[in-house]
Design goal:
Layout (H helix, E strand, L loop, with lengths): L8 E5 L19 H11 L3 E5 L7 H12 L5 E3 L8 H4 L2
Parallel strand pairs: 1-2, 2-3
Helix pairs in contact: 1-2
Amino acid sequence: MGFARGATILIHEAQYHPDEKSGEKAGWGHSSWEEAARVAERAGVKRLYLSHHDPVRTDAEVYKIVSLARTVFQNTEIATETTVCDLASIGE
């Protein structure tokens, strides 16, 4: 987590829901949205972008994941292939 400490942005893979990691997908090496949000919270980053979404999820499901992640780390956004990060708007 030290690598992210105080970062302006953290782009973190968030393929799964926490409960999916203990099922048939256990050990596949992917993070959950909750793990990503906890890392951002503990590292004191300014903004978290969740990336590498499970390809079977609908857009509505991905937006729900962001909503859930914001209960842990408020400054959470979705990272997509068209996301542009304006660092000046994030501030110091």
